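Ligand: FE2/S2 (inorganic) cluster. Inputs:
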Amino acid sequence: MRTDAGRRLVVVGNGMVGQRFVEALRERDVDRGWQVTVLGEESRRCYDRVALSSYFDGVDPDALDLVPDGCYDGRDYVLHLDEAVTAIDRAGRTVTTSNGRAFGYDGLVLATGSYPFVPPVPGADLPGCFVYRTLDDLDAIRAAALHATGRVAVGETDTTGSKATGGGAAPVGLVVGGGLLGLEAARALRLLGLSVHVVEMAPRLMPLQVDGGGGALLRRLVEELGVTVHLGTFAASVAGAAAAREPMSVTLGDGTLLSVDLVVFAAGVRPRDQLARAAGLAVGERGGVLVDAACRTSDPAVFAIGECACVDGRVYGLVAPGYTMATVLADRLVGRAAEFGAADTATKLKLLGVDVASFGDALATADGALEVIVSDPVGGAYAKLVVSDDATTLLGGVLVGDTSKYAALRPLVGRPLPGDPLAILAPSGDGVAVTGSLPADAMVCSCHAVTRDAIDTAIVESDLTTVADIKARTKAGTGCGSCVPMLKTLLAESGVAVSPALCEHFDYSRAQLFDIVRVNQIRTFSELVGEYGRGRGCDICKPVVASVLASLGNGHVLDGEQAALQDTNDAFLANIQRNGTYSVVPRVPGGEITPAKLIAIGEVARDFRLYTKITGGQRIDLLGARVEQLPAIWRRLVDAGFESGHAYGKALRTVKSCVGSTWCRYGVGDSVALAIELELRYRGIRSPHKIKAGVSGCARECSEARGKDIGVIATENGWNLYVGGNGGFRPRHADLLLTDVDTETLVRTIDRFIVFYIRTADRLQRTSSWVESLSAGNGGDHVDGLAYLRSVLVDDTLGIAAELDAAIRRHVASYEDEWAAVLDDPERLRRFTSFVNAPDTPDPSITFITERDQPRPVPLPAPSRGVPGAGPTVLAVPAVPAARGADDLTGTAGGADGDEPARAAVAVGDAPAPDAFR
Amino acid sequence: MTAPSQMDEDADTMWTAVCRYDELLPERGVAALVGEIQVALFRAHDGALFAIGNQDPFTGAWVLSRGIVGTRAERPTVASPLHKQVFDLRTGECLDNQDVAVPVYEVRARAGMVEVRVA
Ligand SMILES: Cc1cc2nc3c(=O)[nH]c(=O)nc-3n(C[C@H](O)[C@H](O)[C@H](O)COP(=O)(O)OP(=O)(O)OC[C@H]3O[C@@H](n4cnc5c(N)ncnc54)[C@H](O)[C@@H]3O)c2cc1C
Ligand code: SF4
Ligand code: FES
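Predicted complex:
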């Protein structure tokens, strides 16, 4: 639709900073003034390098992915992986790539990061030598370690670090470098079952972050974990193995000879500035592409951000300063003012099970800086605060062994001390007292530059009640995670946060309201709000009450007062789309459908000119229906034997299945039959959030059942039941609840699971977080949430099983197709109209064009929304001619004839997040 | 296509009758077309009538009549069905973004009919 192509921006590198930059630009460049092409050398799109080592804890690499869905649309934002930029032609404004392609640019962003520094040691290029920077590096290290331990690679899950070797001594790994990275690598090798040596040139571990005292304790704690530490020396040479399966030998500078199976170099990183050098751009004295505070290089069309950039003579090796640069540059590129200022280089790590944190002027380099040290060698804790000469201002600190005060102290750097430094460091020192004194503009999350004020405001304005809410809303806590304790404290302090109140109309949580309604047999919203609430409700509590009333069997969702409680989707039994039309999704139980029914759907789509798409839940979505067309469409569908698919409701959506044992040569269970049985059993049930299920015919899991709220996998002996899985925003694999059960036990347990969830979960809480919330440490009371769930559902420890079973029996008995019921009732049908006074006139703003042989909505002109800062402004409504016919598929824009309202610059950022985030 | 109009006694702008009062469900809206203007009409719990512009200023879609009606503090409100921003039914102000507002129109009940004046 766009006529004016944006200017071309090429981004080199899809690492953490390059990716963050793209997201920041996307948020700001709403008019798509830039067309962005990202070229990444790695074969994977951007992942969380900071959390790289969690790969060895068994974290799935996909869980490290940092690219939000839809970030690259293939039009304005394009990503090419496995394609490195090999040269920049500044005169011709073109880059060439390893695939031999050329990309022209109007602006070029270098985000190439760093490469690991490998000291020029003879033998450093031998096959047993590795670096520690990318997922590929980690794969290589793991393969070598597995090879050395003589273990066969038994699959992805065996990264538990069990020190299983067949008899003899464990194989040995040497890590060159005793800094942050080196200690992370040492931990990784330990997890892989190796015995580990660390060699560090400086006289202490982590020389850049901790002082001598902290370093001494750190060494002791690390050695207690079985790591041998060599300080004040270096790896002088590496000699290859004499024969295959023999170890290599490494000579240290002090003459020590080590026999090792593999060597990891973690001796620091260097900025990747080679491209820039070759193109004649200015670089810093010690490397890095030289940029000004606006991230601009010596060529005004070229920018550099992240670890490859040298700003103010300094190169940063941490992600937070890179993120700041990404934001600064994104602001600049949309014409806003922004500058890179001082950066936060605080670090907190859990190394080999030892907590270490350093922040601010940790090494007390400032003039007259004083050090206050509390050392507890027996308890294994060392803490130091660096304060100004008058002992009033906090300058920095080091914490080893116990870093619980880190989150509260770090934001106070450069600010008045909240009390006597010794008292603050005392083991019983009160972290909360420290928080209370935190100024509003203190940076709580340095990874994402979120201030205390921003968090407090978000908590109050958006009614946030969990740390997860804060993360979703502000991004705080989603980087290194070290500020999470602080988020918890702020949440607890805010008071509003811990209240279970649903909204201003009810002081109760959803689960409490459920019990109130059930026990008191309340049947209407008016009754409930009159007796237990105040006001007339809102978009938060009304749908909740609607769902509760529906779960307790109160007739059709559009009957009587219930009609006024429903969200537009439930009110029109269809899903609203961005242009005000609706989508229609008939139920296709288990994804099984006859040819005749496929044809019927096709005919309906054709006759009403609907856009058709196959959904992820194995059914067919018909989009673009105007509200007044819905009854006619459903008349046809119901006559063809379809019923509502409840795609619009917080309800059971689909039970996805693979073909199973009927057809598949691997299948051991009839997954289709079970899926259909389950879908028909639970169809229409209303719940706190949508419920999806899946059934696979064998462990190959072709229906991805473990990504569903309820997943069933056939086994040789029956079925395995999994619960609490999720795709979408926060993917989670479902947990195994039952093994090898028969169909009757399976269905009974699912019955109880669903009703227990409906009764006790929070508003908009998916089963995944509900299951998690049952565990202690997560706000729940039980050590192991799954064991608790099993005891309630299987052993009936709460004595409610009979009640849960009865609820499902009632549901099954009272089910009716909501759409068939609407079609039979003229009173309900009357609401499906475009205009109450002109029912034959369709909404004239809705128009379509044809794309790939299907209709596609013409984007609505963005309305003017008033002048920021000038108070509310009521603007004239753009006139929309009413005369356009219902079947109009013309290519004109959806506004007025030649009278399109002015396109106001609207920041996407100020629209509240979608419902689920609130 | 448009419903009959009549002159008001004391003004020369027109009131347009759009539907019967009892066609409006309490706490739900309907859209009406007055001339070329799309109006979202609501009947509150206590029977009061409100009329505002039907266009959601955040997305451009003409859908406000399909939002959930309620209250915030004492104010009668409707929430956009798309992204849930809340608007004051009396003033048109967006309560989630003070820089945004939708138009409000005069509305009254006369002889069992709901009438709107858009000028
Ligand atoms: C194990 C480990 C732990 C870490 N822990 C922390 C921590 O706790 N806290 C912290 O703040 N930081 C930590 N870091 C550092 C952090 O990961 C980096 O600061 C951050 O990734 C820098 O982002 P970047 O985009 O500048 O570089 P990178 O993330 O390295 O991305 C650069 C990307 O550009 C690609 N590239 C390079 N040249 C080209 C080319 N010519 N063409 C195309 N693509 C190219 C590279 O392949 C790479 O994918 C850690 C790093 C590692 C390795
Ligand atoms: S999950 Fe098993 S039975 Fe089902 S399709 Fe895949 S391989 Fe076949
Ligand atoms: S400080 Fe790293 S996530 Fe907040």
